[in-house]
């Protein structure tokens, strides 16, 4: 099966230090992941995403060329909106062992991830999910501010309240004007935030 094949490839690539062999294996992993994505088997792709994320970090001590290949492979998958949504959903889970790595993958996607993350955050039903996604959103820092500013115009009070909380958590002085505008919001729950 594809799942067994990808596991075998991941074991090999995880031990590989030779750039050319690593590159060859990464192409084969990439093909298997693409196949899994076509089948909508997102959970089965996660081990490959995690491996490429870990290998993309210079602190691994791997050859810099291997880190570059791993980065390229990871970025190829992160442009897929379904993969991004899957990662955002995982980042929101109550019990997620790889939350820090997933959050960093999400942050890598920049504006594309911010839009989707804020949508999922606003619509999240469980408080723990909202908290985990909120913490992910904070990691974007100031680049998230234009997106928050747009959401502050929402007609939905809980969307505005979440954005006000994010502004407060980011804590940059440039957010003061945005926060002051929300004082005029008609819903008391927003004002309290």
Account of the protein in words:
- The chain has 193 residues and is an all-alpha fold.
- The chain is built from 12 helices and no strands.
- The longest helix is centred in the N-terminal third of the chain and has 20 residues.
- The chain is elongated.
Keywords:
single chain; 193 residues; mainly alpha; 12 helices
How do the helices and strands line up, and which of them pair or pack?
Blueprint: H1 2-15, H2 19-38, H3 42-56, H4 64-78, H5 81-92, H6 99-108, H7 111-123, H8 127-138, H9 145-151, H10 157-170, H11 176-182, H12 188-192
Helix pairs in contact: 1-2, 1-3, 2-3, 2-4, 3-4, 5-6, 5-7, 7-8, 9-10, 10-11
Helix-strand string: HHHHHHHHHHHH
Q: Number of helix segments?
A: 12
Mean pLDDT: 89
Query: In percent terms, what proportion of residues is strand?
Result: under 5%
Shape annotation: elongated
Calculate the terminal CA-CA distance, rounded to whole Å.
Answer: 51 Å
Structural class: mainly alpha
Q: From the alpha-carbon coordinates, what is the Rg to the nearest angstrom? A: 19 Å
The amount of helix comes to over 70%
Give start-end ranges of low-pLDDT stretches. none
* Largest sheet: number of strands, sense, barrel closure: none
Number of strands: 0
């Amino acid at each position: 099966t594809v799942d067994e094949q990808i596991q075998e490839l991941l074991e090999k690539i995880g031990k590989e230090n030779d750039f050319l062999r690593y590159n060859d294996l990464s192409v084969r992993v990439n093909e298997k992941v693409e196949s899994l994505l076509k089948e909508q088997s997102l959970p089965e792709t996660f081990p490959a995403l995690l491996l490429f994320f870990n290998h993309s970090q210079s602190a691994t001590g791997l050859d810099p060329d291997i880190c570059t290949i791993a980065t390229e492979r990871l970025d190829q998958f992160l442009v897929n909106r379904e993969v991004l949504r899957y990662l955002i959903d995982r980042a929101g889970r109550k019990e997620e062992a790889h939350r820090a790595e997933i959050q960093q993958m999400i942050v890598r996607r920049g504006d594309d991830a911010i839009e989707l993350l804020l949508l999922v955050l606003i619509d999240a039903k469980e408080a723990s999910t909202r908290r985990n996604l909120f913490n992910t959103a904070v990691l974007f820092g100031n680049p998230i501010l234009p997106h928050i500013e747009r959401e502050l115009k929402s007609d939905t009070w809980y969307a505005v309240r979440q954005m006000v909380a994010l502004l407060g958590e980011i804590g940059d002085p440039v957010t003061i004007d945005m926060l002051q505008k929300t004082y005029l919001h008609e819903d008391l729950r927003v004002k309290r935030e």
